[in-house]
Design brief:
The complex is a heterotrimer of chains A (214), B (668) and C (300). In chain A, 72% of the residues lie in helices and 0% in strands. Chain A is mostly helical and 214 residues long. In chain A, helix 1 packs antiparallel against helix 2, helix 3 runs parallel beside helix 7 and helix 6 runs antiparallel to helix 7. The relative contact order of chain A is 0.14. Chain C has one domain. Chain C is globular, with a radius of gyration of 19 Å. Classes of the chains: A mainly alpha (214), B mainly alpha (668), C mainly alpha (300).
Chain lengths: 214, 668, 300
């Protein structure tokens, strides 16, 4: 565990707040990309010794989460011709406040968990929980489908960070699991966005209530 | 064991090849590949099964697999071999038959995919029988359900086939859920966890009596759904009637028996006390009577056969129940007789019902309908199929000299022994059991005479039936092999009984099995030969005595001048006397009479009857309706908005995390 | 040797029973009646006649009489007559009942093969009533099995039965009554069916064989007679049991008992009318209940 871990985690926490408060879609997607790059860097920083396969996985993470997926999202944004996120259900300021409260709770909670000695005192668990919460908030309170996809991606990032706790014990499994379900999520999200757009000519997911059974 | 692995490999490989060829737009080649693979695989698999029944030691194979719940453990002991024999034999015949049967299928489904699914079904059934750990067992069980579902909904362009598929899928998964709970209940809490059958046996020994009863109930529901035990049988007639005929043959002949296999395996794990024999006996009697009473009301040819399967499963259960009871009450001879009879009936029924479904397939193929009231006179148009159907009908009525008699003979002997030796109410109950079995036999004769007589004898009742011809030889040859099995099984039943004795011995345990196989089938074989000889002799005598028989004369019918085919007794009229006067109202078909005299002038009116399963009508429909009504009160949770659902997930996660920290705080 | 005697008795002595029944009925009606040997003359006539087979029928139609006669003859080998039966083994009672069932199966199938409404009607009635008569037969035989602790007819109807009349007379009376009702039902006698009616709508057995003629009808007649003989043997052994003794005496007594049964059937046919068809099942269910009651009496 090198000394670069904690600063990287702080960067990730700050990116969470940025995502919660931003209303411009471009900024949201770029923030997600930045978080992906930070995760790649984290992957190199956390393990005690560096093997070439960790570098490879980190490069893949950066490529996927930092370049490829944000690229797809940008293209979706361009195709649907939208620029801004409409006013979310909870409002930008209240989202920020909720995110802050959640991060605080995560910090408190992390102290009660029975962690391995090298992980005690690190921000890994709290950052992970906070990122998960941010992802949930984005998923729940935003109306545009693209923002909800980024919310899901942030959620995955949070789970990934938690998996970093096990990077020395079961390296390959953790990485593979995280990357695999990310891939699946993108496919599903891509299909869903496409279908919502085609069905309702808009990406407003509030229209999905038309499918509710009466 | 390696041959068995080869068998599995061949089945899966041929299925994959068939799918690939189907995707490459070569459906005929795909079907041929699948069928050839199935036949080769079944031949390969029969060798180790026969060896195991001939007395080879049980083999096992453990495949290490780094899954969380243990390795994949396979084994072949006489019980598994017993169920493998009809599986592989009927599977090969069904594959050959199915290729010709589906070749003329009209509809959107691809026969090549169906052939591949059949191989998948056979492979998963083989795996169910040889699995020795709960994980492998449940995976194979689920695969069996899914592949058979794919085959059942082959004609999914028809509404009732889709509905039958749904009912089957739901019923099968209810059973699978109970099985999962059953296996988890038996997992030993101490020592190495794991779900291999040996460990489950230890876990079962550690259970108290109430837990044991609960586990037995779960196993009973889980396996009973598949076996078609009343009241869990309601999916059986729907699925077996909707599926293509070779699939129905396989399902009635083998799939249902795998439910019985599961019950026997659960019995080996749980070592039930003798008191459960009463429950099994009662379920068996109820199932047999209900099955046959519903069979004789059906208009659909395949539903008659499906309900008859329910009846025969009931008969097997009577044997199993008697054996369980007799073991604990000091009647080893009766136990051995009952179990041997039940197991023999399993084999016999697979052959008989397989033959009948294949014949029914030929009929449906040619006459274009499953409705009995539109058939007739098919024996003259399809002589071979009709003759074999009559043979099957006689065998299913348990008549000598065919094989159906032998299994029921042993069951009667077992019940009779208890009836004449046991004191008090036990003896009387066993005697009444004999009476119930006799009644079932008489009603079975009624049902199958109705089926065979209305479909094959007399004059055709529709134009399509008049145009029927013999189906292709790929369809008739499997039927002939099965018919031969019926005849051979009737004249030498001792051979089959000796072959299955190792499986019975494994189930009975060493004390009872040590006394040796129960005698008593020798004279039956001799009697069968005598019947064939006597009938043959008298037939020749009649040929000699009949002189000057003019041809092309109509039926005299007491001088009636202008008979038409519509004047013949219909299927409904055949069973009318029994159904309308001797059955309670809830067992009769429901009729919808037209309302007459309501208006001044005559209007079009309709009269119809339908024979819905009384268990569905009385038990399942109200239960599901009440359940749906209760559950609809939480319908408000379905908001239709994605964020709301994510909030539900978030709430669950927060609650779980909060519980974790709360727990650490309350109980440090 | 014993087999040949049994077969000869079943095939050659059984028409005499039919003659006796007809004679008794005629006497009750104040007529002289046909000669006692009339059924033999009928059989000879039929076996010499020509045949006609309808174009609707198939080999099943010819199988009906053949299987009916074959099974009745084979069943006679399982029933003790003057002495032990030629073939007896544990469970032969089941083979006996199911052989008769096989005969019935093909008789009904032959009836349905003609494609006629009347024969189908007879077929439907026949299978319904025989399904109800089966439990009565089995339960009565089980009572006898319990007395003899064996499931073989030769043991069940053997010498020990005489002593049983003293101790368990009540159950044996019930058994005789039930078996007699089964005899009437299976052989289409009044009150279940009228063998001399000419109204097809009231027939059961007669209407099933309507289209048979010539040798086939002869086989039907002979088979029916053999079946009456065989089932009568059951009733005879239970009602008038004989102990061990001289085989000649045994045969003489047996034939006397069969004649007595034939007379009893004739009497019943003369004093009763045929039941309405909807009441016949009640009679059969009553027979089942009688035998079930006998079972309970014996078991306690």
């Amino acid at each position: 565990m090198s000394r670069a871990v904690d600063p990287l985690l702080v960067v990730i926490l700050l990116l969470n707040f940025a995502l919660l408060g931003s209303s411009r879609l471009r900024a949201v997607i770029n923030g997600t990309a930045a978080q992906g790059v930070a995760l790649g860097a984290l992957l190199i920083a956390v393990p005690a010794e560096l093997s070439w396969h960790t570098v490879l996985i980190a490069a893949g993470t950066v490529a996927l989460k930092g370049v490829l997926i944000p690229g797809m999202l940008h293209r979706a944004m361009r195709d649907a011709a939208i620029r801004r996120e409409v006013e979310p259900v909870v409002g930008f300021i209240p989202s920020l406040l909720l995110g802050g409260v959640g991060t605080g709770a995560a910090l408190l909670f992390a102290r009660t968990l029975p962690l391995a000695p090298q992980h005690v005192g690190s921000l890994l668990v709290s950052a992970s929980l906070s990122t998960v919460l941010t992802g949930f908030l984005l998923l729940t309170t935003r109306r545009k489908a693209i923002t909800q996809v980024t919310g899901y991606l942030i959620l995955e990032n949070g789970v990934f960070i938690m998996g970093l706790l096990l990077v020395e014990a079961m390296p390959f499994l953790v990485e593979l699991g995280a990357l695999l379900d990310l891939l699946v999520a993108i496919f599903v999200m891509g299909i869903i966005i496409n279908h919502i757009n085609r069905e309702f000519s808009s990406l407003d997911t509030a229209r999905l209530t038309a499918l509710k059974e009466e | 064991m390696p041959l068995l692995a080869l068998c599995l490999l061949l089945l899966l490989a041929s299925a994959a090849v068939a799918l690939a060829l189907a995707a490459a737009r070569a459906p005929t080649a795909a079907q041929v590949a699948a069928t050839a693979g199935a036949v080769a695989a079944c031949a390969a698999g029969l060798v180790p099964a026969a060896r195991s029944l001939a007395g080879a030691a049980p083999e096992s194979l453990a495949l290490p697999w780094s899954a969380p719940l243990g390795s994949v453990h396979l084994g072949l002991d006489p019980l598994s071999a017993f169920f493998l024999v009809p599986l592989l034999a009927l599977g090969a015949l069904a594959a050959v038959y199915g290729r010709a049967y589906l070749a003329h299928a009209k509809g959107p489904s691809s026969p090549a995919v169906a052939a591949a699914a059949l191989n998948g079904l056979l492979a998963s059934m083989v795996l169910v029988v040889v699995a020795r750990g709960a994980v492998a067992f449940l995976i194979a069980w689920e695969a069996m359900t899914l592949t058979s579902y794919l085959l059942v909904v082959f004609d999914h362009h028809e509404e009732d086939v889709r509905r039958a598929g749904w009912v089957y899928l739901i019923a099968a998964h209810v059973g699978a859920a109970c099985l999962l709970a059953f296996f988890l209940m038996l997992e030993p809490s101490s020592g190495a966890g794991g779900l291999d059958f040996e460990q489950l046996e230890q876990g079962a020994r550690a259970l108290g009596p109430t837990a044991l009863s609960a586990a037995a109930l779960l196993a009973g529901i889980g396996f009973g759904v598949k076996a078609g035990i009343v009241p869990l049988h309601v999916w059986l007639p729907e699925a077996h009637a909707a599926a293509p005929s070779h699939v129905s043959a396989l399902m009635s002949g083998v799939l249902v028996k795998l439910g019985l296999y599961g019950l026997l395996r659960a019995g080996l794990l749980l070592q039930p006390p003798a008191a459960w024999g009463h429950a099994l006996l009662a379920l068996g009697v109820v199932g047999a009577l209900l099955g046959i009473l519903l069979a004789l009301q059906q208009r659909d040819l395949k539903r008659v056969l499906a309900y008859s399967t329910v009846e025969n499963v009931g008969i097997v259960l009577i044997g199993l129940g008697l054996c369980t009871w007799a073991r604990g009450h000091g009647q080893p001879v009766a136990a051995a007789l009952a179990l041997t009879g039940a197991l023999l009936h399993v084999w016999n029924h697979a052959a008989m019902k397989g033959l009948m479904f294949l014949c029914a397939g030929g009929v449906v193929h040619q006459a274009g309908t499953r409705d009995l009231e539109k058939m007739g006179g098919l024996l003259r148009r399809m002589p071979a199929t009709g003759a074999m159907a009559l043979l099957g009908a006689a065998a299913l009525s348990a008549l000598p000299p065919l094989n159906g008699f032998a299994g029921e003979f042993l069951l009667y002997l077992g019940l009779g022994k208890v009836a004449i030796t046991a004191p008090g109410w036990t003896g009387a109950a066993a005697a009444l059991g004999v009476g119930a079995l006799a009644l079932t036999g008489g009603l079975a004769a009624l049902t199958f005479l109705r089926l065979a007589g209305v479909a094959f004898l007399g004059e055709p009742r529709s134009a399509e039936a008049a145009r029927a011809t013999e189906p292709s030889r790929w369809m008739t040859w499997p039927m002939m092999l099965l018919a031969g099995a019926l005849v051979v099984g009737g004249t030498s039943p001792g051979v089959a009984a000796r072959a299955l004795w190792p499986a019975a011995a494994q189930l009975l345990g060493p004390e009872i099995a040590g006394a040796g196989m129960p005698p008593g089938l020798h004279p039956i074989g001799g009697a069968a030969v005598a019947v064939w000889l006597a009938v043959g002799l008298l037939w020749l005598t009649l040929r000699v005595l009949v002189r000057r028989a003019p041809k092309n004369v109509g039926t005299w019918d007491c001088g009636y001048a202008e008979p038409t085919p519509r004047m013949q007794y219909t299927a409904r009229s055949f069973s009318e006397h029994l159904v309308s006067r001797l059955l309670p109202p809830w067992l009769r078909p429901s009729t919808h009479r037209p309302s007459l005299g309501a208006r001044l002038f005559p209007e079009p009116a309709r009269f119809s009857t339908e024979s819905e399963d009384p268990v569905t009508r009385a038990a399942w429909r109200p239960l599901l309706a009440t359940g749906a009504e209760r559950v609809s009160r939480i319908r408000w949770m379905q908001q239709g908005q994605l964020p709301v659902y994510v909030v539900y997930i978030l709430a669950a996660v927060v609650a779980a995390l909060g519980w974790l920290s709360l727990r650490r705080w309350l109980w440090p | 040797m014993n087999s040949a005697v049994h077969l000869a008795a079943a095939l050659f002595l059984s028409p005499l029973m039919l003659g006796v029944i007809t004679r008794v009925k005629a006497r009750f009606a104040g007529r002289r009646g046909a000669p006692l040997l009339q059924p033999y003359l009928d059989l000879v006539k039929l076996f010499r006649k020509g045949s006609i087979f309808s174009r609707t029928t198939t080999w099943v139609f010819r199988m009906g009489p053949v299987v009916g006669l074959a099974t009745a003859a084979l069943a006679s080998l399982l029933v003790p007559m003057g002495g032990r039966a030629p073939f007896s083994f544990e469970g032969d009672v089941l083979l006996f009942a199911y052989l008769l069932g096989l005969g019935r199966f093909f008789t009904v199938a032959a009836a349905m093969d003609t494609g006629s409404a009347f024969e189908g009607m007879g077929a439907a009635r026949e299978v319904t009533y025989s399904a109800l008569a089966e439990p009565a037969l089995f339960l009565s035989l089980l009572v006898l099995a319990r007395f003899s602790a064996s499931l073989s007819l030769s043991a069940m109807l053997g010498p020990g039965l005489g002593a049983r009349w003293g101790t368990s007379g009540a159950s044996l009376v019930l058994v005789v009554a039930a078996l007699f009702v089964v005899l009437l039902a299976e052989n289409s006698r009044i009150p279940v069916d009228d063998p001399t009616t000419h109204l097809e709508l009231t027939m059961i057995h007669e209407v099933m064989v309507l289209d048979h003629g010539g040798p086939a009808l002869g086989m039907v007649l002979l088979g029916a007679a053999a079946k009456l003989f065989v089932l009568g043997a059951l009733v005879a052994h239970v009602a008038v049991p004989l102990g061990e003794g001289d085989p000649l005496l045994g045969w003489a007594w047996f034939l006397g008992a069969q004649l007595a049964i034939a007379v009893a059937v004739g009497v019943v046919e003369s004093v009763m009318a045929r039941l309405r068809l909807v009441h016949v099942p009640s009679l059969l269910v009553a027979a089942c209940l009688l035998s079930a009651f006998a079972v309970v009496l014996v078991a306690r």
